[in-house]
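Dear colleagues,

I hope this message finds you well. In preparation for our joint manuscript, I am sending the DoxX family protein (Micromonospora arida) sequence together with its predicted structure, so that both groups work from identical material. I would be grateful if you could confirm receipt.
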Amino acid sequence: MNVVLWIIQILLAAVFAGVGLAKLSQPKEKLRDVMRWVDPVPPSQVKSLGAVELLAAAGLVLPAATGIATVLTPLAAVGLVIVMIGGILVHLRAREQQTSPDGRRTEIQGAVTCAVLLVLAAVVAWGRFGPYAL
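The corresponding structure tokens are as follows:
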């Protein structure tokens, strides 16, 4: 199970480092093409969310890999659970307002993606706080 947790941690870190870096480095107008939910959100909030995601990505892997302050790994996972709850709510709230060019509602897909990431982060939090603590 320890190996499974490491795989999930690395996967989550890669995902959140990528999207966090994109939110920090790209202007809101460019993000709008792939993240339609950013439309009503102030740019400062998008950047702040990117910073939180990037820090969480580092928190998932670095403390565990170095053996320094290992309690930060499950705390980072809990933080991502909270962020993903917010993500699900944002996507569901935007569902009626936004559709893709081919007419499909894209925000449901975003909510499902957030739910999957939430479950993965919750598994890491459970495992690293509980039976497979570092």
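For the figure legend, we might mention the following. DSSP finds five helices and no strands in the chain. The helical segments are 2-25, 28-31, 43-66, 72-94, 106-129.

With kind regards,
E.M.
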